[in-house]
Amino acid sequence: MKKISLRKPCPSPAKLLNLPEEQRDKLINWMMSGLAYDDIMKRVNEQLGQSIKTTGPLKRFWKKVCRPVLLQRQAEAKRAASTISTTIRKDIKKALENPEAKIEELKEVLRQIVAGEEKPASKLLEPAHSKEKAMDEANPLDDQEKLDEIRRQVFGSAPKS
Fold it and tell me: Is it the case that residue 112 has pLDDT exceeding 80?
């Protein structure tokens, strides 16, 4: 004798898992946006043409599909934040190492970084070797003359050779 169940059959989770890609993406976006399950259920019934009467299939869809997507997005955000952090540290270090740095210029670099500007526009962040190269092009002295010139700039005078 066959046993009769009085419980309604639970909608198949495969119904949501087998949605076409476009509908599946919509459902993922609805769930990731923080909508309540009841609101999502209405949208699934009305916009996706699926008949869902309980939140069970949505919970299973979250667990099997949305959660891995969320974890992947979090990992990508963490990598991006790490890259940005490294870039910011390098920019601040360059600005602080610049001997011509003035407090107002440093403040401006930090303001641009905090404002999220992709690459702060400041002469403080120019590599030192580019200034040396420009100096070489403008003043083609031999090595001894360069050394004497640097000594004059730093110490006020160069020793007699």
Answer: no
